[in-house]
Amino acid sequence: MTRKLTKTVTVIASLATFTLCVFLPAQQPAAAPSEAITGQSRDNDQWWKHAVVYEIYPRSFGDTNGDGVGDLNGVTQHLDYLQQLGVDAIWLAPIYPSPQVDFGYDVSDYEAVDPQYGTLADFDRLLQQAEKRNIRIILDMVLNHTSDKDAWFVESASSRTNAKADWYVWNDGVPATNTDLTDIQRSNVQTGPKGQVVPPNNWASAFRGTAWTWVPARQQFYYHKFYAAQPDLNWRNPQVERAMFDVMRFWLDRGVSGFRLDAIPALFEDPQLRNDPDPRNFGAPGYTWDLPEVHDVLKRLRKMLDSYPCERVLIGELLEPNMSKLDLWYGGTAHDELQLPMDYFFGLPGILTGSMLTGKDKLNASFYRNQLVGMSTQLHGSRPFLFFDNHDNVRSLDRFGDGTHNVEIARVVAALLFTSPGTVQIYYGEEIGMLTTTPTRREDVKDPVGRALWPQNKGRDGERTPMQWTPGPQAGFSTNPDTWLPIPPSAATTNVQTEEKNPDSLLNWYKALISIRRSSPAMRDGSVAIVDETNANVLSFVRTAPAGAKPVLVVLNLTSAAQIATIDLAKVKMGPGDPKTLLASPGFQAPTVLNTTSISLPSFAVWIAEID
Ligand code: BGC
Fold it and tell me: For residue 606, what are the domain limits?
């Protein structure tokens, strides 16, 4: 495998001929970068279509000041690692000042950096150093809500007459004597100016209980889709949109490459405040999610981003149950909303069936065949955004792993991700096989979700543990033994330093896949042709090649049993050819001739081959 890696890396260097794009404030001409560009190229022509995006949870990546919490300098320190991995862009989970009730998703100042993570100067240095390595920075942008400690909310909550009185979603409530109340309303009785009142409807917080909290100073309830410390902004007030667009300009002017829009379908609520049909089902259609008004905001936002050079990108967090719903979020045929809807349907199939609560997912050949076909037939040329892991979910290794073949399964999952025709996102530590390390005692839990729902739901701490860099103290994450979340025991063997030395490690598998994806035109832009439409255990498809390039065959055994793959290339209108293996799982004897043929695949085998 080491030999194959060397080959693909050579191809990358020869492809690095794209136009450079240097981030300067709008209207200024782009200048040449001060240092030579190495590694990834500044492909400015829809760069986001081919990007590998790496999500960093800033508390957990690298701690340079020894306080046990990660910081921005800790990200800068590890940029060389990310460059060698092949990362094009970093998505930073929120870095803004925050009381950290929801670890940054409760922002109290949108135009600064939380002192725990550093300063604006540290951020600028990160941007500059990342740019030297052709790595872009994408910020998480929380538009739906602020922290209750944000000056906007503090002012808004102080009276009914202040300048920001209408910046949040306020309501007087309804009389507690009404006869048509729901249980969730009855659980929140307050004393208002005209007697006892309850919230106006049954809306529930995604983090448990009622979504309405009482403020005595206003004698009113405010609405919060998430935690009470995360009041929802009132996007029907144009001043809110103006203020938030200004915030985004502040960061675009500094040189960020775009935003991941947190919980974007939650932006608007029903003005008639109608009861949700299924209030406890977060993300279900109703009156607090997916309201059409959000699309008008996205169109204006996209226009604003498009006024900047270097193709700034909008990635939106969604929860659509199937692919056909995504078209709307791209902006239909006008393509004037999100470039990349971040939906769960590909990497978290369990979220659609409710099995997420058990923390288990399944590699199902027909499901993934349908998804691959859907990407070509249902998105009308738009680009899917694919991922398996993020900071909100049990890591894929635990969801898909069977405890016996975990590394083999992780290889298949990664191969599926990187050979699919989409923009790809990975989550720090996924590339080395980090496990979810869930707290065992409620008093250790940091995530509000885990504290509120213990023990049915132990929260998201397990997937947010510190990055495992070395087998040494604190896994090389920090000099402080008191890290904000404990270092998992697996760090002794699962860490960057150890895996870099092992040619068969998961880390080197990721590097190889990223490298192939970057260097093969079929992998970059080819469409998908399914080779075997019925096999229940094996997924095999061809990434067809643009003119002059070679198609690539992908064969994945999704089971722990040996399987036979039937490779009939005629089915995908290709003649027999000599396959050139680009990557194969260790121990798999790749065929040297390819005709209508049956191939024996050992358990969880992966074969990726160029066809001459
Ligand atoms: C983020 C979560 C966060 C929530 C509220 C999400 O979708 O990914 O981590 O708790 O929004 O902001």
Answer: 526-611
